[in-house]
Amino acid sequence: MAGYQVQSQHVLAMGTVHMTGNIIPPSWFQQLTLPNGKPNLPAIIILSDIVYWFRPIEVRDEATGRPLQPRQKFQADKLQMSYSAWAEMFGFGKDQVRAACHYLEEKGLISIEYRTIEPNGVKCNNVTFFDIDPAEIYRITHPESTVADTPIVFHGERVSCSTPTPSLVSRGEAIGFHGETNTKTTSETTTEITAERENELSPASSVSAIWQEVFGEPITIHAQEILESAVSDLDAFRRTLEIWKMNGYSRRSLDKILDRYNQEAKNNQTKQSVSANHLRLVDQMPDGLDDFGKTRWLKEQLAKGAAA
């Protein structure tokens, strides 16, 4: 943002105020809502506090200035916090806080665990611990844009979805079939180059390449089948995997990612199936029906298909 020329001295004065603490992205007011469509303010405020605690502390080497291994703000593997503490901090009722936390848990943004601990030898039951899902936090903070507006990265080359990919001839990479070549066998080299180019331009192989790049090991066939059907935004997919890796999540816990994309793939297949079935029925519709008759006939045919 370029901004405007400073005309208010208060703007310069505010530059000296160092602010820390909770951050609330504007997108949360659209993503976290009540049944009536209004923002769920208790949930938004409490989530912002949970996210604050999970944001890592940056540590730099005093001599070189290079970043060191990040540190965390809380002692255990999860955040220990009570509903009463948040109620007192933000002026909510305890029941409001509990309802907000359960709302966030149902959204998949956080998880709640009750533990028995013994600080200083004193046994405490039902102590509340909280964890977050970084991928879901990212999803509500950066809602996915349309595929047409999202550039795709192929081995470092940014290609816009709205711009046709240059042909091999226009890029000076055409393959000669009848001229002299520097290869030993034209057919073998042609097959290798064609296969490599197909992999380069295939979204499925890009998904595999991103997985390999982030985790350093090839994707399983099962995972590839799921992701090929569901992933449309490659940049968002890469960022999701990087967030999970950065937070130290194991490969086993990545089943949550696959479950999410698997559900998206099933939804896509269902929509395509319903659309194809609808078009088939339209082709079979009897002539001479008015609008009401057409609607009634379609409903009857769809009901028969569902019953079958």
Draw up the topology in text:
Layout: H1 9-14, H2 28-31, H3 41-54, E1 79-80, H4 83-90, H5 94-106, E2 110-117, E3 124-132, H6 134-141, E4 152-154, E5 157-159, H7 186-201, H8 203-215, H9 221-230, H10 234-246, H11 255-284, H12 291-307
Characterize the structure shown.
- This protein has helices at residues 9-14, 28-31, 41-54, 83-90, 94-106, 134-141, 186-201, 203-215, 221-230, 234-246, 255-284, 291-307; strands at residues 79-80, 110-117, 124-132, 152-154, 157-159.
- The protein is mainly alpha-helical and 308 residues long.
- The protein has a 3-stranded antiparallel β-sheet. It has a two-stranded antiparallel sheet with strand order 4-5.
- A hairpin with a 6-residue loop joins strand 2 (110-117) and strand 3 (124-132).
- Helix 4 packs across helix 5 and helix 8 (203-215) runs parallel beside helix 10 (234-246).
- The longest helix has 30 residues, at 255-284.
- Mean pLDDT is 74; it is low at 145-187 and 193-205.
What structural keywords apply?
308 residues; 3-stranded antiparallel beta sheet; 12 helices; 49% helix; 8% strand; extended
Give me the Rg, rounded. 27 Å
State the share of residues found in helices, binned by percent: 40-55%
* Count of beta strands: 5
Structural class: mainly alpha
Categorize the overall geometry.
extended
Largest sheet features: 3 strands, antiparallel
Span from first to last CA? Answer: 58 Å
Approximate strand percentage: 5-15%
Major sheet: arrangement of strands:
1-3-2
Provide a count of the helices.
12
- Give the overall average pLDDT: 74
- Which stretches of 5+ consecutive residues score pLDDT under 50? 145-187, 193-205
The run of helices and strands is HHHEHHEEHEEHHHHHH
